[in-house]
Amino acid sequence: MRFLQKYFKAFLMGLQSSMEYRADFLLSVFSGAFIIVIQCFLWTAIFKSSSNSVIYGYTYPQMIAYSIMAGLVAKIVATGFEWEIAEDIKNGGLNKFIIQPIGYFYYRICCFFGRKALQLVVLFIMSLAGLMFCNIGLGLKLEVPRIILFLPFVFLAMVLNFMIYYCLSSLAFTMAEVWGVFVAAGQGIMMLSGGIFPLDVFGEKVSAILSLLPFQYIIFYPVNIVNGKLSFEEVMNGAIIQIAWIFIMIILSNLCWKSGMKKYVAIGG
Amino acid sequence: MKKIYKELHKHIIIYFLFMKNSLIGYMEYRANLFAALTMELVYLGSKILYVVVIYNAGININGVSPDEIMLFIGTYIIMTAIYTAFFMDNFYKLPEHIRNGTLDMYITKPLSLQFMVTLRHVNFVLPVPNLIAGITMVVLACKRLGITAGFINIIGYMGILVSATIMAYCVFLIPQILSFWTVKSGAITEIADKCWDFNNMPMIIYNKWMRRIGVFIIPVFFITNFPAMFLVGKLDGIYFIWTFIAPIIFIVLLRLFWKFAIRNYTSASS
Fold it and tell me: Which of A42, A102, A125, B94 has its CA at 20 to 30 Å from residue A88's CA atom?
């Protein structure tokens, strides 16, 4: 029990930190809404100008629901701790974790979920409001089992995204300046996970290649569960692959961190 | 008149020195150079994705063909290159100068403070992929649309690009000047940056009121839409007149706002 206590404290620290910068979070949600607005206008114009009622395999309500939910899920799974890890590695902040009886990985994941706790409440309410709008205003068919399935899927997407960035942050052991990699990876992951457009726009061949990567289980899959695009069989298969990817990323990050720690020079005494 | 010419000459010579210094800085930190290039290439990829989506859909959107949309997005990418080359780094640094008190040093120099602070750094890396991709897209789109590379088209397009550059300078510097009062301006910068993304697509996709606001009140649509509109022959009436008037109005407004902000500057250093 005492083992868990220290990590619960880390969770609380994360929660406190998110409450301290709540204005920053709300403003980031506001600016994040811009991409949703652009997407909604774009798809409305495309559907209005087209004689087809289905484009890229989506009906108009499904596409609008996708645009809204993709923007919100992107905010839900967003990280940001990778900059702190890089700073810890560069300036020797990692030293205290080496000598103290606390695991750096557990500390980071508890902090991450602590920071997310309050934001999740706000973002889930916004997601629900977005879905209600699509249901009442656009006639999107909503099914309660899908909404219930969406929740664990998003939780797993958060864990998967955390693992990917945790793995990525180990690059700071070998590179002095990792900011370019982080920004490029952030935008790349956003694109490949369906955060800008649904992955169907890439065409069948590219979509087939992308299905071999973990990224689509971060945004594309959870959003398509809730907007009714995926069958229940596809959802179940997706869940198994998503969990498998989490385990693969855990093993990979372990290897990267073990190799990185051998190079760590503990600057700052 | 002679005094104005002398001042202008001095500022141009110093601007070339700024460019030289910036280039030396980039050659010194090559790792940063590659990191920045990688980052910009990924961002460019996400911009090109919009063109891919439109071409794959294969339809005219609100009367605008995919080729015309490529022309708009190409112009947007060229404008992104110009903005990142001359303004972006300087604008990001302005709040830092105010917060840390380094603005004091610039105040003491015998040059225009606004010139020193807002045009000090020139980025030679970020614009490269954007400039290549943007020009390629514009040339390709013109070819497909049958727009000839005549004297009027080239001079008109370049002239409106200059006008749009002045507007980009004014529109995106104004939010940064707010940091004279707010000191910390991370959120303002983020919102201003996201406003730039509204140009990912031509303004024709937005409704009437958003277009009016985006052209006349917060003229972000002016910056990337007007040069392309000129080439496809859609820059007429009030928009054509606005192309000449807007930069003058906004430069005067910016100058007044800058002077007002400087009067409120309280040095953060000793």
Answer: B94
Residue A181 to residue B35, Cβ atoms within 8 A: yes
Closest Cα in chain A, distance from residue B114 (Å): 28
pTM over 0.80: yes
Residue A162 tokens, joined: 């955390």
In a domain, A52, yes or no: yes
**Residue-number span of the structural domain to which A176 is assigned:** 2-263
Q: How many domains does chain B have?
A: 1
Domain that holds residue B242: 2-263
Q: How far apart are CA B35 and CA B42, in angstroms?
A: 11
Who among B46, B60, B194 is closest to A34 (CB)?
Answer: B194
Residue A269 lies in a domain: no
Interface of A with B in 185-204 (CB under 8 A): 187-188, 190-191, 196-197, 201-203
Question: Do the domain assignments include residue A54?
Answer: yes
Residue range A153-197, pLDDT digits in tens: 999 999 999 999 999 999 999 887 788 889 899 999 999 999 999
Q: Is B182 on the interface with A (CB under 8 A)?
A: no
Q: Distance from B51 to chain A by nearest Cα, in Å?
A: 11
- Taking the C-alpha atoms of residue A153 and residue A163, their distance in angstroms, rounded to an integer, is 15
**Is pLDDT at A97 greater than 90 in this prediction?**
no
Contact A107, A84 (CB under 8 A): no
The closest of A263, A200, A261, A205 to A70, measured between CA atoms, is A200
Q: How many domains does chain A have?
A: 1
Query: Is B201 an 8 Å CB contact of chain A?
Result: yes
> Is the residue at B269 inside a domain?
no
What does each C-alpha distance from A67 to A62, A258, B69, B241 come to in angstroms? Answer: 9, 39, 21, 37
- Residue pair B198/B220 in contact (Cβ under 8 Å)? The answer is yes
DSSP assignment, residue A200? G
Q: Is residue A192 part of a domain?
A: yes
